[in-house]
Design a protein that fits this description.
Blueprint: E1 5-13, E2 22-29, H1 32-35, H2 38-48, E3 52-58, E4 68-75, E5 80-81, H3 85-98, E6 105-110, E7 113-120, E8 135-141, E9 145-147, H4 158-161, E10 166-172, E11 178-182, H5 185-190, H6 195-199, E12 206-211, E13 220-226, E14 231-234, H7 241-252, E15 256-261, E16 267-274, E17 279-284, E18 286-295
Parallel strand pairs: 2-3, 4-6, 11-12, 13-15
Antiparallel strand pairs: 1-2, 1-18, 3-4, 4-5, 6-7, 7-8, 8-17, 9-10, 10-11, 12-13, 13-14, 15-16, 16-17
Length: 296
């Protein structure tokens, strides 16, 4: 294909300042040939080498007066994925800043159905210094989990857990991620993962989670490792909170939760359960760190 300038940006999602949270590349495609070229999109994602790169194409068939809608696809450095929270947040941030400045909501057509993102001023239960800031609220499908009750189900990941106290082990139904609850947030934060060991698991990835320290302002801490998808450790993962929100919501008997992903970059997510409709609202901040064009 000929050289075409494509608007793109790198956005740190679930972050209030640059170089925190989870970076995602966002590419706005206007050419149908480019938008249909999956091989090219995978190559771009590998070139950015971030945990996810998002590709947006506007739906030009939307009637006037309705919410703007974009086709959205997500690619890790090695494969396309069905759902990505931080790249959706980054995409909404990019659109609200550059394309939809007068809009308060945008819809995305994705492999996981229609997802919405809207501007909100405060997500509820935020810290005092965050009051009045602009957040983005994502509406995602809720995931469920099942327990690992037999010896065959219990994974052997001794190097990664390094003697931590395991409270329970579950699996997410949608992606089959292993969910290992530890007894404390400190144990979660102190894990030194054995990536080779995690790759050998039958599961897509490993979620390690634990209760937040008293007085921290959070309900639980988490880390996520997904080397099979080219992501040794994902800095902040919106999609896994589709299962962690109902998991901790049931455990703590709460509808609204504050979560911290305790990766080296770290990030905060505000969660609200909509059990009646099987949805999870995920709220966070984002900041653009690079803005430019990509030649295709």
């Amino acid at each position: 294909m000929g050289k075409k300038a494509i608007r793109c940006a790198v956005v740190d999602a679930f972050a209030a300042e640059p170089f925190k949270g989870n970076p995602a590349a966002v590419c706005l495609l206007e050419d149908e040939d480019v938008a249909a070229d999956e091989r090219w999109m995978q190559s771009v994602a590998a070139e950015f080498n971030l945990s996810d790169t998002a590709f947006l194409v506007r739906d030009s068939t939307r009637p006037a007066g309705t919410a703007a809608r974009f086709h959205l696809r997500w690619f890790t450095p090695v494969t396309e994925v069905n759902l990505c929270g931080h790249a959706t947040l980054a995409s909404a941030h990019f659109l609200f800043k550059n394309v939809l400045a007068e809009h308060g909501m945008v819809e995305f057509m994705t492999r996981s159905g229609i997802l919405t993102a809207k501007k909100v001023t405060t997500p509820g239960s935020v810290s005092e210094e965050e009051q009045g800031k602009l957040f983005i609220e994502l509406d995602f499908p809720m995931d469920s989990f099942v327990g690992c009750n037999t010896a065959d189900d219990m994974p052997l990941i001794p190097e990664t857990l390094n003697g931590a106290s395991v409270v329970s082990i579950h699996k997410s139904k949608a992606d089959g991620d292993l969910i290992v609850e530890l007894s404390s947030a400190k144990e979660v934060a102190d894990i030194v993962p054995s990536i080779d060991e995690i790759k050998r698991l039958d599961n897509r990835g490993l979620i390690v989670t634990g209760p937040a320290p008293a007085g921290s302002g959070y309900d639980f801490f988490t880390r996520f490792f997904c080397p099979k998808f080219g992501i040794d450790e994902d800095p902040v993962t919106g999609s896994i909170h589709c299962v962690l929100a109902p998991y901790w919501g049931r455990k703590l008997e709460k509808q609204k939760l504050a979560a911290y992903q305790a990766s080296p970059r770290g990030g905060t997510l505000y969660l609200e359960l909509d059990n009646a409709n099987g949805r999870v609202q995920i709220k966070g901040e984002a900041v653009t760190v690079m803005d430019g064009t990509l030649l295709a």
